[in-house]
From TrEMBL:
GO cellular component terms listed in the entry, alphabetical order: ribonucleoprotein complex; ribosome
Any Pfam family hit: Ribosomal_L18p
Classification via Gene3D superfamilies: 3.30.420.100
Protein name in the entry: Uncharacterized protein
Family: Belongs to the universal ribosomal protein uL18 family.
Superkingdom classification of source: Eukaryota
Record keywords: Ribonucleoprotein, Ribosomal protein
A single BP term in Gene Ontology: translation
Gene Ontology molecular functions: structural constituent of ribosome
Length: 65
């Protein structure tokens, strides 16, 4: 088994478990400058809510911290 095939095989179990649970999940992406967050439906077909430090409202509330 080559390196790519073994990586794909290792990745299937956690992904299957996420689908089986059927829970809404939070996805966070961090860059050195900003943080982005999304709430995603269980099947991953729709984003329910988003927030990021790029948004002016959130940036203003974080200015004091």
């Amino acid at each position: 088994m080559d390196k790519k095939a073994s990586r794909i095989r290792r990745a299937t179990k956690p992904r299957a478990k996420i689908r089986q649970l059927g829970a809404t999940r939070l996805s966070v992406h961090r860059t050195p400058r900003h943080i982005y967050a999304q709430i995603v439906t269980a099947d991953g077909s729709m984003t329910l809510a988003t927030a990021s430090t790029v948004d002016k409202d959130l940036r203003a509330s974080l200015a004091a911290t």
